Amino acid sequence: MSAHPHSRYRVPGRPLNLTDRFLLENLRAGRGGKVALIVDHPERGVAHYTYQEVAELAAQYGHELRARGLGLEDRVFIVLEDGVEWVAAFFGAMQIGCTVMFLNPKVSAEELAFYMDDSRCRGVVTTREVTAQLPLHRPHLRTVLAVDDEAAQAALSARPTVLDVAHTLEEDFAIWLYSSGSTGAPKAAVHRSYDFVYNTERYAQHVLQMTETDVTVSVPKLFFGYATGSNLLFPFFFGGTAVLFPDRPTPGRMYELVERHRATILVNVPTLIAQMAERWEGSDRRPDIESLRLLTSAGEALPEELYNRWMAGPGVEILDGIGSAEMFHVFISGTLGQVRPGSLGTLVDGYEVRIADGDGNEVPEGEVGTLWVGGGSAAAFYWNRHEKSRDTLRGRWVVTSDLFRRDADGYYWYQGRSDDVLKVAGRWVTPNEIEACLCQHPAVAEAGAAAYVDAGLTKPMAFVILRGDAEPSEALAKELSTHVADTLAPYKAPRFVEFVDTLPRGDRDKLDRKSLAARAKDAASQRGVKE
Asked: By CB count within 10 A, which of 73, 135, 197, 473 is most buried?
């Protein structure tokens, strides 16, 4: 590609359109009649879509968005429940060269206003319910396509089922991944097209060893980049099958989906792994999950005790890993046959890591430091966050807030986040280590730790969800505190233990530490503690 046939100046970047590579390549490979997508709806039943059918639907969405004035580099938000409409809108928008972003469909009106203003998006594909919550002042927005509107459905159905692919490049910005906003306002990591191919070829191919025989199903929904990759892009890249469902992921529902659709990979998170393990332990009729060859886990580090619990029950290998919006997907992961419980595994091929001190110098092996990561899927920058981009995206490195240590065998061990660390009795404590220790106790299903202030001094508090028949009591609270003191150190033991039914979590199922800290402050106040 060049500015002129005889010009010595050439536009950098090779041609790449993600719809072409992840969807239409399957048609060229002769997989047009193969089932690409299974949508399991609790009310409408199960629907199967072949690669040919998904491609035709994507073309219709692309035609409709183009007719509404959208095209190359226009930003489009998808705000839908998981289903064929999500997938068709995603591929249809990218087929005409749009940049795609996605949101949890349970987003609030206040959040919608922020995202519309921050992104300056030109289009939204959503439902009538969400449309009613869009802000009245939206100067950048050209069109809203409500997929459940009868007129919109008729327009889509009338569109051609064949569509040319926009001539986009590897260097074009194809997808923005918004952070969860757990430490401030959400920010968009701006990604090139090639970032998604890069990670797929390294993580999905070499670590997950995916092929066209794989059937994936995911606890996280498609608006979460972890699932966008694991339960859509990855299976489509290899010609496999993705299972989608719009309802809430519960332990029983996940077992049902695996059994019904013979899933081979279950994309999971620690919270649901714990709940699924407990259901297995208390069930008379064990579900048939023989089709599963592995689970993935991300979002939070998987405690060693939970891994051992799962392996003693269902027994399907779990590959824990860490990824981020900045890197698109997982860059450190467990590998089949080489899992070390409690560790996040080893470096995915194609990525590099430094564990550094506050001055950016590498720390000695075994010591704790901040994780720096580099690789070909790193975001270019944060949209409209110049200073944050300079602080976090430093040349070829992404400087995270995650604390790690690396052992002599190259395994990485998560130690919490630098912005979550507590200073107790003049020494640093990570909530993560308190939580992991509590989960080793046979009465504990899940745990969260936060700090409260007592007469100017920071002290740890724990919130605990109990297993099965365990009953909350002062005696058990004391026992749990003693367990942490004996296992770790007395100063790390929670001074108070609160028994709860749930822990606050964000829409990506990560523990919401801001909410937990507020809960700890309230609980301390109710106990008469004076700051």
From this structure: 197
Express each pLDDT in 214-225 by its tens digit: 999 999 999 999
Phi-psi sector, 120: left (phi>0), alpha (psi -120 to 50), beta: left
- When the candidates are 3.40.50.12780, 3.40.50.1980, 3.40.50.1220, 3.20.20.60, the CATH number that belongs to 18-406 is 3.40.50.12780
How confident is the model over 359-408, as pLDDT tens digits?
999 999 999 999 999 999 999 999 999 999 999 999 999 999 999 999 99
Residues 467 and 230: their CA atoms lie apart, in Å, by 30
Is the separation of the CB atoms in 445 and 278 below 8 Å? yes
Distance, C-alpha 252 to centroid of its chain: 21
Sheet holding 45-50, edge to edge: 45-50, 35-41, 241-244, 215-218, 265-268, 294-297, 318-323, 330-333, 346-347
CA distance 313 to 327: 33
* Distance, CA of 47 to CA of 33 (rounded, Å): 15
- CB count within 10 Å of CB 425 equals 12
Strand-strand pairing, 241-244 and 215-218: parallel
Q: Phi/psi at 50 (nearest 5 deg)?
A: -80, 170
Contact between 75 and 172 under an 8 Å Cβ cutoff? The reply is: no
Closest CA to 189 of 324, 390, 383: 383
Can you give the pTM of this predicted structure? 0.89
Smallest CA-to-CA distance from 261 within 218, 225, 230 is with 218
Determine the Cα–Cα distance for residues 285 and 244; give it in Å rounded to an integer. Answer: 25
- Sequence length of the chain is 531
420-526 — its CATH code?
3.30.300.30
Alpha carbons 346 and 341: distance in angstroms, whole number: 12
Structure tokens at 92: 């249809």
